[in-house]
Write a structure and sequence with these properties.
The chain has 171 residues and is mainly alpha-helical. It is 82% helix and 0% strand. The protein is built from 6 helices and no strands. Helix 1 runs antiparallel to helix 4. The longest helix has 36 residues. It starts with a helix and ends with a helix.
Length: 171
């Protein structure tokens, strides 16, 4: 009974994360579009993101850096969607199923993709800092560790699915 309650609470949190991250990605897109015509909007693009130095240097670099952020939050929203989907379809009596396994694997691959995007962003702003003198604002990149952990859990889930299948055959 306690497990079901925790899963329901996690389901609610996953929905909140999905809505919040979708809003964040949309807000950055709208803020970016507004900033193309309003120089003052670049100073506080979204939640204190000050990218004025990038826009003054190059509209292309500014657009790419904003694009990294949009992609990052979009992938996070997609991961939250996958978690919502996983928790919605989870049968606590038979938790090991192919849909849950695929969802966990997709989550780990999405986290790995997000890590690659963050690394590309950090390299890009690092190069701009070295060549143009623009102070780099790096994004944390612990996603590879989280992706590895989720992938290991998906492998454990896969083994549980195999054992469950073998158990069904012996009965």
């Amino acid at each position: 009974m306690k497990t079901k309650r925790i899963l329901k609470i996690m389901h609610v949190f996953a929905w909140i994360a999905l809505i919040g991250l979708s809003f964040k990605a949309g807000a950055i897109i709208i803020s970016y579009l507004v900033s193309l015509g309003n120089e003052g909007a670049v100073k506080d693009l979204y939640e204190g993101m000050n990218l004025i130095a990038y826009k003054q240097n190059s509209l292309l670099h500014y657009s790419i850096i904003v694009g990294y952020r949009i992609i990052q939050f979009s992938i996070q929203a997609y991961i939250a969607f996958l978690v919502v989907k996983l928790l919605s379809n989870l049968n606590i009596n038979r938790p090991f199923n192919l849909n849950a396994l695929k969802a966990m694997q997709t989550i780990s691959y999405s986290l790995l993709l997000m890590w690659a995007i963050v690394v590309a962003h950090n390299i890009h702003v690092g190069i701009l800092e070295a060549t143009q003198g623009i102070k780099a604002t790096l994004i944390s990149s612990e996603f590879v560790l989280i992706a590895g952990i989720v992938y290991v859990f998906s492998l454990l889930f896969k083994r549980g699915l195999e054992l469950q299948y073998e158990n069904d055959l012996t009965i």
